[in-house]
Structures are given as C-alpha cells and as structure tokens.
Design a protein that fits this description.
The chain is α/β, with parallel strands linked by helices. It folds into 2 domains: about 55 residues, Orthogonal Bundle (Helicase, Ruva Protein, domain 3), CATH 1.10.8; about 200 residues, Rossmann fold (3-Layer(aba) Sandwich), CATH 3.40.50. The protein is about 45% helix and about 15% strand. It has a 7-stranded mixed sheet, with helices on both faces. Helix 1 packs across helix 2.
C-alpha cells in the first residue's frame, strides 16, 4: 500500500474527515515513519499519534458552523464592543488563546515595545490567534496573513476578517512543508515550535531560515496547561539550540504563562 492510500485511511476516519487536513501532511508523516524503518501498520500508528499532536483537538474549538452563521448574520460589526464580544468568545474556545486573555493588553504592548508596530504580519499555525486582532492595536493598513491546516478554522478567520474590516487573509496548508513566501515585517509563531519539534526533530531551524521577515516572534508555554510543571528551561534550550550559530539577537519577555522570544532576523 502506498503512503497516499495509507493517509486516506486516516483522513477518512470519523475523527478527521470533517477537518479537511491537507493530505500531504499525513503522507509526509507516514513517509518519514517508513523511512525510519517502521512497518506499514506501525507507520500508520506513528502518523496517527503525530497528527493528533498537530491538530491538537484537546486544546478545544468553537462550533464552526454556528460561528460562521453568526458572522454571516452580522455581516459587518457595528461597533467595537460587539467585535470584542465575538472575538472573546472565539479566543475562549481554544486553550492556547484562552489562557492569554487576562494579560492580552500587556502581552501585545510589551511585544511591540521591542519590535515596533509591523506594517505586515504573518501569523503562523495561527489557531484562534487572529481573533485577538482588536487588542493588537495594529496600524489600520497592516497586512495580516494567517496560516493554519484546519480548513473550517481558515474559512471562519477569512469571514471574520471581512466582518471586522481587517486587511488580510487566512491561508490553508501545511507551513512546515510549504513555508509562506510573503516578505513581511514580522511573523508570529505562538506556542507551536515545541510541537513542530515533536513532529520532526530539529525542523524549526530550516523553517525559521525560510521565513523572509525582519522579526520572528516565537512564544512557548512557560508551564504546562495545569501549571504543575515548569517548562521554561526546556523551552529556552529549544530556542537557543535552533539559533545555534546564527547572529540573530533575541529579547526574551515573560508574560503570564508565556515565554516570548523576539528574534531580530534582518536589520533592513
């Protein structure tokens, strides 16, 4: 059986068939497992385990159909209060953005104190992060490009951008296999580098090198979701190991349960 046939078996399962995960993601997982000497059935098991970590259903999701219907009825948000009310509901639906809500104003102000306000932004493996746009205080003409491999999420973000008057677009695809080609002032890569490393050990370096941005802002959890285990030293080792030998200055910020590494890639 070829990797594409093995991938279709996973993608047609009840767990994934409505998420429209890019087939190339699963083919890549299976192919790498086979290349490491796993037999086909073990390669499928390995791919399932890694895909579960990539999609991360345990972090939560809104009801996308209901959210799309609500946005369709709104069309254009009449005021900032309604915009923030809807956005908060979306942010609360996902554990990664939910835990940032109490420090959200501080989070973005401290970040942009280091980097300055971008005129163009890539939000990589974005999850529900674009719904924090009302708190970012970005310039109104800032180009905002979001990327995710969860198709219902991408569709919702694009409709949200239209309703909120955001100058931007969300793209569907696997950014590890096809890094964004846009040149931008800044890229957000929030709470994802450790999961990239679990998917493919050491892959962050080539991925970060491929990004044509002045600032790469990487965040990682300083503790696990329960707060019981301190992860800060492990996360610092991941970042410093990825940047080994690269002359990219780093400014570290700790806000809430999040370590933020503001990495200056280019001076131009």
């Amino acid at each position: 059986m070829e990797p594409i046939e093995m991938a279709e078996k996973i993608l047609s399962s009840r767990k994934y068939r409505n998420l429209n995960i890019p087939p190339e993601t699963v083919v890549d997982l299976i192919s790498r497992a086979l290349d490491h000497g796993l037999k086909p059935d073990k390669a499928v098991d390995d791919a399932r385990e890694k895909l579960h970590n990539i999609v991360a259903p345990y972090l939560g999701d809104p009801d996308y159909a209901d959210a799309m219907q609500e946005l369709s009825q709104i069309s254009v948000f009449p005021n900032n209060r309604d915009l923030k009310e809807f956005s908060l509901k979306m942010l609360q639906s996902h554990a990664s953005t939910k835990e940032r809500i109490p420090v959200m104003d501080e989070f973005y102000s401290r970040l942009f104190e280091v980097t300055g306000n971008p005129s163009s932004l890539l939000d990589l493996a974005c999850a529900m992060q674009p719904f924090a746009h009302p708190w970012m205080r970005l310039p109104t003409d800032c180009d905002y490009y979001a990327y995710d491999l969860h198709k219902p999420r991408v569709d919702l973000i694009n409709l949200f951008f239209q309703s909120a008057g955001v100058k931007g677009r969300a793209y569907y695809g696997d950014i590890l296999l096809q890094p964004p080609q846009f040149k931008a002032d800044m890229a957000f890569f929030f709470k994802e580098a450790h999961r990239f490393d679990q998917r493919q050990k050491g892959c962050n370096r080539n991925f970060w090198l491929a990004l044509d941005v002045r600032w790469l802002v990487v965040s990682l959890p300083a503790a696990n979701l329960t707060g019981r285990f301190d992860l800060a030293d492990r996360q610092r080792r991941l970042v410093t190991g990825t940047l080994d030998g690269l002359d990219w200055p780093v400014t570290e910020i700790l806000t809430g349960n999040e370590l933020v590494f503001c990495i200056r890639k280019h001076n131009d």
